[in-house]
Amino acid sequence: MQITKILASKTIVFNLIISLTLIYLFLAFLPTIHLINPGLDASWSYGISQAAKEKLVFGKEIVFTYGPLGYLMQGAALSSNFKQIIIFRFAVHFVLLGLLILRIIKLQTNSLKILIVINFIFIFLLGVHYNNTIGFTTDYQIFSIFLLALSFEKFFVKYLQVNSIIVGMFTGLAILTKLTLGIYIAGTFYLFLFSGFYLAYRKQKLKNLSKYIQSLFNFTLIAISVASIFLYSGQSITVLTKLLVNFIISGIVAFVIDKILNKTRLITFLKKLLPYLVFYLFYTTLLIQSFSSNNFPSLYEYILNSWSISSGYSSAMSLTGSKRAFISLITDINALLAILCCAVIINLLFRLCNSGSTSLSIALLFPLFLGFKHGFVRQDSHVVLFCIIVLLIISLYFIKIDNNPVKNKPKLYITYLILLLSCVVISTLRNYQFSKLNPAKVANNINRVVLLLDIKKFQAEVQRITSENLVKLNNRLKLPDSVLKKVQGQTIDIIPSELSLVPGNQLNWKPRPIIQSYSAYTEKLDEINYQSLSQSPRDYLIYHFQSIDGRHPFFDEPKAFSYVVCNYQLDSVNSPFQVPAIKTNFYLLEKQKVSRCSPTPLGETTNITWEQVYELPTRNSGITRVQVKFEYSWLGKIVKQLFRIPPVTINVNYLDGTQVNFRFVQDNSANGVILSHLPRNDQELMAFFQGKLPPQVKSFSFSVSNPLLFSPEIKVTPFWEVDTGSSSFLNLEKWRIGNSNP
């Protein structure tokens, strides 16, 4: 009896130490609150917050991977949403802490408890919070909560129908925060359900089959319904009312069918299942009918357009093929280590299947795949995301083997050490956050948490922080007085990406749906921006001559940009100008009343091969656009879905004899890219906007590191547009401009 008490007391003390360690860790790495700042990531962070504040329809008026609730996870803090953001992020943070402590102290093996704690220490340390957007951020914490809940596998299966409804609600909200988070959760849970269904089918357990079928429908329909309710806050009550009516009608029909079936001689399995299937069928039909009209924002449109950005990332944003051999070697080693990690984890999950956790093991393959894809498409700081997923899966593996005696502990520890060191090596060039573990900083974080409990002080602090930030922002990003006077109160958009100018100057921002030009990397996304600009022109545009990844700025949203060239003129009095925090030039463009462009027929289509030089047919003082159509091979289509497509390079030969290589965006170039003029500096850009720049490009060719991923032939079709006689940018001369849809 005394020995039992001693062991119990030791366990309590050990669990207390574990709990205090985790509490210290979570206090050291409190969620980051993003203030409005200049920069690429900071700009879209502001954009999604402002879009939610203005109640723009996501998927239509704004298209991004984040949804109407995305500001809660990665949005910039505005005075109107600061409290919501901080409460949401802190709530997720501490819910994860509580669930993690609960899950760990239920384990029997102390060594496994220690290993899980080590995992989470490294998860936070590896989570570099690059620009506060990459790392163990709120979206990955939400997914961690889901995985920890799913690790209670027996409980989940026992009450599967109810739990599927809860997970469906959870997923519906997750989709509206960030589409990929919803995909992470939905894909994992679908694999969990399908594998359970297959096992029930193999064992011929009809009761379990019925349970999994019901759970599958419960999860799917609840997720769609919840997402539909909160997609647009302006119509949430109306949508909820519609769904309740659909639910009642479907329930009545199912009830009648149930009464009829009870009088038949059908087997019990069908008697119980058919009423549910009738309910699901009627509810689905009514759901489709309700949202088929244009009276409600389209969840389908939101998912489809957001998916275009997510899926296009694999081909438009990859960074393979660095010219720096050493860096290329390191990234290749990292990719090999990542593949090794995947192989080891798959082996561990296969073993876990044999110990009775088949559904969970198979389900974990999905986040492993997505983590690898997200981490290694760009293979920059994003590799940290793969490491986080690996360590989360290992933690779940430790949780599941707790009740099964480990036969070879040294082998397990060596395997774990290999995985941990691989993650450290993969992210070794990243900015580790050891300084956050400083006791003084943790004490300061405790004061921040305590402040949340004092509502008056908290509100005063929120007001102070947001007001001070706006003052600093105005000082750093203030437009010249002449520019500000001209655009004040007029509709305006920023091209390509520096959205911080909007709050810094209280501009009347009317965004293109794809708010940053570099993201319009498919024909469809470019078309969406073109339609927005052409159907509802902005009075002014502020243009910044820059892009990312070695692209020429004219390659971003080519159709939309060509519309700008045809329909806006340069304000040469106020252009170029600068703001204090950004030492590069901006240009003010003003809407013309009449487009200067009119269509002409397409030129002759030429099929060229990789690295074949194409002589560009140009016209005197004219602008030539070129439709460039690439096709993926069957191998390329597979690789694009499973991994990444290497960058396509355009090798440009200028008439003055110089040669320049640019990253080319192959998935939107069929819309027609301006290729006769590719300014190389601000002076040439000014001349281009003023109609003074003659055609520059003599010829070009395309290259890629792996041509097998593409069709060997590239279709190249030049075309022009003739000046209609309206004024040019400065009424200096008439010129021809290519644009298929002026």
UniProtKB/TrEMBL annotation:
Keyword Heme recorded: no
Q: Which UniProt keywords apply?
A: Membrane, Transmembrane, Transmembrane helix
Annotated TM spans: 12-36, 86-105, 112-128, 183-201, 213-233, 239-261, 273-292, 325-350, 357-376, 382-399, 411-429
Origin superkingdom: Bacteria
Q: Spell out the protein name for this chain.
A: Uncharacterized protein
**Organism expressing this protein natively:** Microcystis panniformis Mp_MB_F_20051200_S9
Q: What is the lineage of its organism?
A: Bacteria, Bacillati, Cyanobacteriota, Cyanophyceae, Oscillatoriophycideae
